[in-house]
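Let us practice reading a record.
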Amino acid sequence: MSLRLRSRWKQGERERSLEDLATVGAANAWRAACNGVLNLENEGFETSSRAQRIDIIEEFVAFLLLLADRLVYEAFSAEDRARFITAMALRLAELVDENRTDAQGPGEHRDRFIEKLNERTGVYAECSYSPEEGPGFTMLCCLGDRVTDVLGPTNRKWAQDQVVAIEGPEAAQGFTRALETLLEDGGRG
């Protein structure tokens, strides 16, 4: 299934703010993560609840957010990079909160997700990444470990292989391609 992410601005040539870019980046990360869950389910990896699906989505979006940070590392000043990543993380936290509230009722969903992001930042910081080749094997393995932890012990090895070889690279490639195009076309203010 082809993953369609937003890579063009709708309203002409006007300059976009970092927050505009972060909002679209978050929406693209969310779509790529949902596609990853759908692909896993289509390959026979069962999820038992909407909450479990959101757990997997959280792992994918954390991975993609940290990929976005690597992508903008040299393109943005330290201040702009922090502003962009913070805005993207906050928008993702809103999406998590909305979806968890629908699935599980009110709670501290936003804060728990921010805590998870902070934890994942430390984990992924140790992983390899190159602008030319994208996330390294260790970064994909970290994503695979997190997703298979959520899926549970059944088919653990096969789920790890599926995430490392197919779902992680597909999500990363589609997301980075869309973000790079938005960066090129969007301008920043």
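A brief commentary: The radius of gyration is 16 Å.
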